[in-house]
Amino acid sequence: MSEVGRTKRKEKCENCTKQCNKKQTEDGVGPDPEQEEVNEQSEAPAPLLLSACLSCEGCVSEQESLKISQQSLEEVEQVLALNKRCDASKHRVLVASVCPQSLPFFAVKFGVDVPEAGQKLCGFLKSIGVQFVFDTTLAAGFSILETQKEFIQRYRRRHHDPHALPLFTSSCPGWIRYAERVLGSLVTPHICTARSPQQIMGCLVKDFFCQQQKLSPEKVFHVVLAPCFDKKLEAVREEFYSSLMETRDVDCVLTSKEIYRLMEQRKVSVEELDSVPLDQVLGEAADAALTRHDGRGSEGFLEHVFKHAAKELFGLDVQEVTYKTLRNRDFQEVTLERDGETLLQFAAVYGFRNIQTLVHRMRKGRVPYQLVEVLSCPGGCLSGRGQSEEAGRVDRALVQQMEEVYSSLPVRLPELNPALKVLYQDWLQGQDSLQTSKLLHTEYRSQTHTQPPHMQW
Prior knowledge:
By secondary structure, the protein is α/β, with parallel strands linked by helices. It has 17 helices and 13 strands. The chain has helices spanning 3-20, 50-54, 62-69, 73-85, 103-110, 114-127, 137-156, 173-183, 197-213, 230-235, 256-265, 301-314, 352-363, 385-388, 396-407, 418-426, 434-440; strands spanning 93-98, 132-135, 167-168, 220-226, 241-242, 247-248, 252-255, 324-328, 331-338, 341-350, 371-375, 389-390, 393-394. Strands 3-11-10-9-8 form a five-stranded mixed beta sheet, with helices on both faces. Strands 2-1-4-7 form a four-stranded parallel beta sheet, with helices on both faces. Helix 5 packs across helix 6 (114-127) and helix 5 (103-110) packs across helix 15. The two termini are 24 Å apart. The model is unreliable at 1-31, 35-52 and 449-457 (pLDDT under 50).
């Protein structure tokens, strides 16, 4: 790295340290956020999002920066241009997968409901040369079911495995990066091994879909539309690259605002867009209605696992999950009780400050939870920086509108989705098969030895 690059990196990291108030102490633990007074004065610096902190040059290698920079509209347009002017043998089939949390952004921008926004977005993508457009709800169903299964297994071995509980969810790449790069072995053994919905969708497209279409995986260019920039980091992880096929499960991640910007560049109006139904992985258009999972604008891992565990472990049917707000609306817990006895205690912890509180409690052995749903963005996935920010600040009015339209979608339990049952049998050879373990799970490891000195928190 050049001298200028080193200087810029040093200045940025020092500035981050000041903003985050994470001054290193002798034992490597920063100030306890539970003891800090929250400064509500207007001149106080805006809180730095975890995702912003972990995307600075001090944490992202030059190689990663290059890979992330290649995930852009320009890359997609290059593929589209090559398809137009090259012979058919060099064509790549473009497949787009849309995260459910991105659709409310387009619904608000278009002034329509979520299903109509999905069809308008599909119409736009197909008009520019994308051949297939899926939504990732099916992949999220896989991730939820595998998380449920892993929780039950860990709960039953909790007495002889010190790392069994608490179980931390693994769908948020900003949180995973922080856990691997900064927290290390304190946390990584507790992270759920189920892949995120994005990366399970990558396997569905590059494995199952390619088999169905009789395509080689490297002939497919898979784009994911997501609400979060950190999803670009997740897509370039080494374990999601096939050296044999020389292809990634997800070739490019674009945020909601990047796609919206493309529509503006092309001067496309909502009125002139055709409404085209989203494609189905199994090719069954009869079951094409958009649904969502339980939860507060995210995939609802906490609620689904909570209800499943209550039934599987204690024979209790939980219809409604009641949240108890602790420090703020982004640190909440749910409890299952019977005859005055606490059977289960889960927590939802969103945002950097709350994550820091959780970590400090864990260091002190004061985490009473069996499962924690952890997300780096305050408010959850709908508040992802790739769709919620305007001029560097979260547009709270926009987030509220997105929450309202998202909650209007009907909830569907993944256990009741017949497509998942078919795919478990026809694609994965059963729920407990080696194929299921290989394609739906991964490992998270401590990488604190690569942590630069100025990132010791």
